[in-house]
Amino acid sequence: MSLHFDLLQILPADQLSVSAPVLAEHSTDKWFASAKPDIVAFPTSTDQVSAIMQYATKHRMPVTARGSGVGYVGGCVPSQGGIVLSLARMNRIKEISLADGVAVVEPGVITGDLQMAVAAEGWFYPPDPASLKECSLGGNIATNAGGPRCVKYGVTRHYVLGLEVVLADGRVLRTGGRCHKNVTGFDLIGLFVGSEGMLGIVTEMTLRLIPHPPSRQMLSAGFATFSEAAVAVQTIFSSGFLPSAIEIADRFTLQAARAYKGAELIPEGQAHLLVELDGHEEAVTADLRKLGALVQSLHPTSLTTAVTPDECAAIWTLRREFSYSLRATGLIKLNEDIVVPRGRLVDLVNFCEALQASSNFPIACFGHAGDGNIHVNIMVPDMDDPTQRARAEAALDKLFTQILAWDGVISGEHGIGLAKKRWFAAATTAVSRSIHQDLRDTFDPLHLLNPGKFLDP
Asked: Which residue in 28, 44, 64, 73 could disulfide with 419, CB within 3.0 to 4.6 Å?
């Protein structure tokens, strides 16, 4: 209770909580691990965040920053207790400047809310994680989140022009700004984007906006096998198309979606390919016609197109339900956001089919085929069962070992967190890990920020 009393000198009582339900809610994310904090703080300003960090530094108190808590790697699990610093109430869109092509926002803003606000002005914020209706921009910054449109538009980092960051000792760093080009000094923004809350706490961001594409049209195709759908991806690119999104899903994912949403809503076949084109209407219409003929030549089991905003939204709604459909199976979804060179997509499909047979766990694969970022979901009935957990860990070992052997990476958009901690060494060099530690020691010498994650033993 002394911690609660001390923090009452910094925050009003309604911005602090030690109630059991609140502590439980802030002890976990979408992964299965959990650890209770001692207290949850809900600051509403940069000054309050700074004061909390000054207190934490003085008393050597762990602090874990949290956005919406919808991550998949235990990244915001307060593994060493202490303070969970929720940024949910710092949720203002401070400014949308079309003249400068920027939005100035706080970290608690929901990604989809910013997208809608910007779209209403005829502009576009491209990063679009599948959880965009519930994930926060601060969390997107922490993991350098991506989404389906990365293949054409890039990831979160490409849209961050400026940051305000509270450092571990309470100092406030402002780096970058409103200019779309800036090479003044080191790229400090690049350090913080993807740092998983271990270098500082972002309290404000200036984000780049671009004009909204006048037209979007889509193609949805079913295939008899995942391998055929993967071959279609390569054929589309080799034929000169650059889609704004190209997504793929396998048999288990489609079965789960049919059970969750209704079979009549899901395309026929054992694999699904979704392709989106955008640009000026005349060009998009012509390209969609050519794309449809190309995909038809690959003998899909079904092929439909969407040309109106409502038709496209219906297809995207189905795609964004895949993850929820898998959770509705009742199985624990170990969602691994691996990335392989795009030429390895068919190899990945074949490997996952073999892994499913050897592990005796269902494996669902779907995701961003355009950039090789496929979500490989190992579906486990009970991670509290020691036998099942050991089998799942063995399957993950095989998966990550193969991915690295193909010059792939173990995370494309979720981060490392707790879930991938034990594979971090295999995925990096000794020199890289040393540089990571040097940077952390510089920004957070007491290791108070989000401790227990991949940089700790």
From this structure: 73
Residue 123 CA, chain-centre distance (Å), reads 22
Amino acid type, 272: H
- 90-95: long-range pairs with CB below 8 Å, 24+: 90/43, 90/44, 90/45, 90/138, 90/203, 91/136, 93/117, 94/204
Q: At what angle do helices 345-359 and 386-405 cross, to 10 degrees?
A: 160
Q: Quick check: 340 and 408 in contact, CB under 8 A?
A: yes
Total residue count of the chain as it appears in this document = 457
Gap between the Cα atoms of 147 and 130, Å rounded = 6
302 and 268 in contact (C-beta within 8 Å)?
Answer: yes
- Rounded mean pLDDT, 140-146: 96
Q: Quick one: CA dihedral 390, 395, 398, 402, positive or negative? A: negative
User: What is the β-pairing status of strands 215-223 and 210-211?
Assistant: unpaired
- Largest Cα–Cα distance in the chain? 70
**Cβ neighbours for 416, distance < 8 A, ≥ 6 positions apart:** 73, 75, 196, 410, 424, 453, 454
Question: Are the C-beta atoms of residues 407 and 390 closer than 8 Å to each other?
Answer: no
Query: According to the model, what pLDDT value does residue 219 have?
Result: 96
Gap between the Cα atoms of 361 and 363, Å rounded: 6
pLDDT of residue 268: 84
Read off the pLDDT of residues 219-258 as tens digits, 9 standing for 90 and up: 999 999 998 999 999 999 999 999 999 999 999 999 999 9
Q: What is the pLDDT of residues 98-140, one digit of tens each?
A: 999 999 999 999 999 999 999 999 999 999 998 999 999 999 9
Mean pLDDT of 25-37: 94
Count other C-beta atoms under 10 Å from residue 184's C-beta. 9
User: Of the candidates 207, 83, 99, 77, which has an alpha carbon nearest to the alpha carbon of residue 145?
Assistant: 207
- What is the spatial distance between Cα 129 and Cα 156, in angstroms, rounded to a whole number? 10
With H, G, I as helix, E, B as strand and everything else as coil, classify residue 42.
Answer: coil
Are the CB atoms for 354 and 365 separated by under 8 Å? no
Q: For residue 40, what are the contacts with CB-CB under 8 A and spacing of at least 6?
A: 16, 17, 18, 22, 23, 26, 83, 84, 86
**What pLDDT score was predicted for residue 343?**
87
Place of tokens 């059970």: 259
